[in-house]
Write a structure and sequence with these properties.
The complex is a heterodimer of chains A (593) and B (211).
Chain A: H1 2-9, E1 12-17, E2 20-25, H2 30-36, E3 47-49, E4 54-56, E5 65-68, E6 77-80, E7 91-93, H3 97-112, H4 128-135, E8 147-149, E9 159-161, H5 171-179, E10 186-188, E11 195-197, H6 214-218, E12 224-226, H7 230-237, E13 243-248, H8 269-279, E14 283-286, H9 287-307, E15 314-315, H10 320-329, H11 343-359, E16 366-372, H12 376-380, E17 387-388, E18 391-392, E19 396-399, H13 400-409, H14 431-434, H15 441-455, E20 473-480, E21 483-491, H16 493-504, E22 512-516, H17 536-551, H18 561-571, H19 577-583
Helix pairs in contact in A: 9-11, 9-15
Chain B: E1 2-4, H1 17-31, H2 49-61, H3 69-80, H4 85-95, H5 99-108, E2 120-125, H6 128-132, H7 135-146, E3 159-164, E4 176-178, E5 181-183, H8 190-210
Parallel strand pairs in B: 2-3
Antiparallel strand pairs in B: 2-4, 4-5
Classes of the chains: A alpha/beta (593), B alpha+beta (211).
The complex binds iron/sulfur cluster (3 copies) and FE2/S2 (inorganic) cluster (FES) (2 copies).
């Protein structure tokens, strides 16, 4: 039976696109067929992120119109190619004046209702609406409709929502609801004034938004962007009284190059460090140091929980979006995650304590800037419990994109920069910390250390292939000595929800679980260079992360000399009292709106 | 929120009529002034538990809640007279769907209202038949006389204006309905009279109470 079905599914159809005759499988759209034929049809609302199972099929923009020929009735029809399925004998033209005009008109109408302020728009030269206008040769806008002017929502420290620039493609809604299952965004209103926003149109900060930024990553315009903080950074750098420390997350070094026209997956660690030094930061540290520290704590916590029959599984919590997700959506489970602070917050804390003492600096005068692939970390840094003695652990967070903008602003020719090394002591890192940047990496790094600690033997093969893969939920069993550890890895909050529901219902028997809010991990974070619907870019960044790990001499966190020194001189034992005070935190039950 | 009014004009040459027609619909939409979308504040009004119980019983009695959101919202509006935040959240939680989704539907249909309405609802039909016979001018006049936009309520709590789709009395176009009463072939000049009828009623009622 099944065999039959499959045969049926494989049915092929004969169609014609412009002058080409094609044989295509049943069930695909005219848009996909045209792709095969090498005919480009512009799209805007349409988004097909196959790897994430994210398909936006609202067919709302009408930018992909083609002409369906019907010579028999002498009545050709304009149809949106992104949702029109091919049919046998179908003849389509993408190049008639009618089709071209229809497509251009669709963009023109969108522009008639759009604030024309590209010069100052944060999406300038990155905006899909802008490129379409160019691609479709729009040279004038014939309409101007009445429209509302909505205030910008700058309520949160992380996301800015500018409804005036919303073209109502609803990609963000699909991302937030279907991929992330957060359900924050929904279409509001109707007609020309419709836009996207949270329940009751409340400010984002009052919603249960996790600030994962996946909506920002797919928004074609500047209706959703991060909150920009570059000015604050320049201010700090230019204040002679301040000692300004910058740290960069693992995922930055494999993506920053894209902003300067480099191939996706180019590793630019050395250039990045040089750029930061030239920009005037006093010290350039590496968040990977914080990651190594996280592993020391997390691996200790895992072993502690295993030995003492405490709550299992342990959940990694390097990702603040994921933390916020569990707080809002599963408040009954907030005792499950590890209590470790996230790596950049750990580094910030150590910078203002250990490092400050060592250098004889007043913590009041230290400003810690984090460069993150992430929007959620902006909000994380502002959490009240991450402030100690009135010092924020981290003062300013900027995204990869913002760093790119600052480098350009400073007139630094990135491509031509020589390489430099991170500063010491908080720049000494291992391969284990590099892989934090990709899904599965944190747990792999933790196991490299836990393995050696639990068995007392040297781990020869540090790469855990069974923990690597692009799928949303990955389950694996890892043998450590005579113990078998059941590991779960989820990236993307929809996948996290699956695992959490199992835990809540007592159906899961994991020992340890890693969760990242962004599908694929931080390499695909909301603050990374826009992938513009091309997820191949993310795969290349991932490869680069593993490559950077292989290049490292030391690949296990507990072999990081500076880390060992830090424990010896300052913190005492991993997971000990001092470590608890400085490196651990707590969570809060929150309402779901 | 500030409104910008800009002229629009259509150049008819060169374009496929189909598209022009499609967008003409959109433009009409603009002319009937879609409702402003403000942040919805909690009203602070507490409803008796019985009302929530009634709504809950209604939901529990449905065979399936799938695809029933609109029906449920209608019922809720019938019970509460409007759809405040808490009621919307109540429904969302009851159905296990995001609050944003419920609000999305509420804000889409002009039938639903999120503010307690006035004592009298003036519904002006904006259906095609009424529209071509000048309903737009009639509604403008109502707005001018009452000093409010559609979906707003006068300060004295007496009147709410709504623009509604065809109410099935096209023969009498343009049609205005105040509460249950239908006024046909309404002209701009009639507007003052209609409003005054209700104002007088109110005054008389007030007098009665005083005596
Ligand atoms: S906010 Fe952006 S992604 Fe969402 S509907 Fe508007 S334009 Fe599309
Ligand atoms: S940041 Fe994440 S949770 Fe918040 S609205 Fe966007 S996709 Fe949804
Ligand atoms: S996965 Fe990484 S980039 Fe994405 S929200 Fe979490 S920490 Fe930020
Ligand atoms: S891309 Fe097809 S309608 Fe938007
Ligand atoms: S159009 Fe107004 S009643 Fe039908």
């Amino acid at each position: 039976m099944e065999q039959d079905n499959q045969c049926e599914n494989k049915k092929t159809l004969n169609i014609q696109i412009n002058d080409q005759k094609l044989t295509v499988p049943e069930g695909i759209t005219v848009l996909e067929a045209s792709h095969e034929a090498g005919v480009k049809i512009p799209t805007l609302c349409h988004l097909d992120l196959h790897d994430l199972q994210m398909y936006n099929k609202t067919a709302s923009c009408r930018v992909c119109m083609v002409e369906l020929l019907d010579p028999k009735n002498n009545r050709n029809k304009l149809v949106p190619s992104c949702v029109t399925k091919v049919q046998d004998g179908m003849a389509v033209r993408t190049d008639t004046i009618r089709a071209i005009t229809a497509r251009r008109m669709a963009v023109e109408l969108m522009l008639s209702n759009h604030p024309n302020e590209c010069f100052t728009c944060p999406k300038n030269l990155e905006c899909e609406l802008q490129s379409l206008a160019e691609e479709l040769n729009v040279r004038q806008i014939r309409w101007e409709g009445e429209r509302m002017v909505y205030p910008k929502d700058m309520s949160s420290d992380a996301i800015v929502k500018d409804a005036n620039k919303c073209i109502y493609c609803r990609r963000c809604e699909t991302g937030c609801n279907e991929v992330q299952t957060c359900g924050i965004l929904s279409g509001i209103g109707r007609g020309f004034n419709a836009f996207v926003g949270p329940f009751a149109n409340i400010p984002m900060v009052e919603s249960s938004c996790t600030y994962c930024g996946q909506c920002v990553q797919v928004c074609p315009t500047a209706a959703l962007t991060e909150a920009f903080h570059t000015d604050k950074v320049w201010e700090a750098i230019n204040d002679p009284d301040k000692h300004v420390i910058v740290q960069t997350a693992p995922a930055i070094r494999v993506a920053l190059g894209e902003l300067f026209g480099m191939e996706a997956g180019t590793i630019v660690t050395g250039k990045m460090v040089t750029a930061l030094k030239r920009m005037g930061f006093d010290e350039v540290f590496d968040t990977n140091f914080g990651a190594d520290l996280t592993i020391m704590e997390e691996a200790s916590e895992l072993i502690y929980r295993l030995k003492n029959n405490k709550t299992l599984p342990i959940l990694t919590n390097c990702c603040p979006a994921w933390v916020k997700f569990i707080e809002h959506q599963f408040p009954e489970l907030i005792h499950v995650p590890s209590t470790c602070k996230s790596p950049h917050i750990m580094l910030g804390t150590i910078a203002k304590t250990y490092y400050a003492e060592k250098k004889g600096l007043d913590p009041d005068n230290i400003v810690v800037v984090s460069v993150m692939p992430c929007i959620a970390k902006k909000a994380e840094a502002k959490r009240a419990e991450l402030t100690k003695d009135e010092h924020n652990n981290v003062d300013i967070v900027i995204t990869t994109r913002e760093l790119g903008a600052m480098i350009k602003e400073a007139g630094i020719e990135f491509e031509r920069l020589p390489d430099s090394e991170f500063d010491n002591p908080l720049g000494e890192t291992t391969g284990a910390s590099v892989i934090f940047g990709t899904a599965g990496g944190v747990i792999e790094a933790a196991l490299r250390t836990a393995h050696e600690w639990m068995t007392g033997e040297k781990l020869e093969k540090v790469e855990f292939e069974e923990l690597r893969g692009m799928e949303g939920v990955r389950r694996a069993t890892v043998k450590i000595g005579d113990q078998e550890l059941k590991i779960g890895i989820a990236s993307g909050l929809g996948n996290a929800r699956e695992i959490l529901e199992d835990i809540r219902d007592g159906k899961a028997d994991y020992h340890a679980i890693e969760i990242m809010a962004c599908p694929g991990g931080c390499i695909a974070g909301g603050g990374q260079p826009y992938h513009h619907g091309n997820h191949e870019v993310v795969k290349k960044r991932r490869e680069a992360i593993y490559e950077e790990d292989r290049r490292k001499k030391v690949r296990k966190s507990h072999e990081n000399k500076e880390i060992l020194e830090l424990y010896k001189k300052y913190l005492g034992d991993p997971f000990g009292d001092m470590a608890h005070e400085l490196l651990h935190t707590h969570f809060e039950e929150r309402e779901r709106i | 929120m500030q409104k910008v009014r800009i002229k629009f004009h259509i150049e008819r040459k060169n374009y496929s009529w189909q598209i022009i027609y499609k967008y003409f619909e959109k433009l009409v939409n603009v002319m009937t002034k879609p409702q402003d979308i403000d942040v919805m504040k909690p009203t602070g009004q507490e409803f008796p538990k019985e009302k929530y119980d009634e709504l809950e019983a209604f939901i529990n009695n449905l065979e399936t809640t799938k695809g029933a959101l609109i029906e449920i919202l209608h019922k809720a509006q019938e019970i509460f007279r409007y759809l405040p935040r808490d009621v919307q959240l109540f429904i969302a939680r009851k159905l296990g769907i995001p609050g944003a989704e419920v609000f999305g539907v509420v804000s889409f249909y002009s039938y639903f209202t999120t503010k307690p309405g006035g004592k009298h609802t003036v519904s002006v039909c904006m259906g095609t038949a009424c529209f071509v016979r000048g309903a737009d001018k009639v509604i403008e006049k109502f707005k001018e006389v009452l000093g409010i936009e559609s979906n707003e309520t006068t300060e004295d709590g007496l009147f709410t204006i709504k623009d509604v789709r065809c109410i099935g009395a096209c023969g009498l176009a343009p049609v205005v309905m105040v509460d249950g009463k239908v006024y046909g072939r309404v002209k701009v000049e009639d507007v003052d009279g209609i409003i005054n009828t209700y104002r007088k009623q109110e005054e008389q009622n007030a007098d009665k109470v005083l005596r």
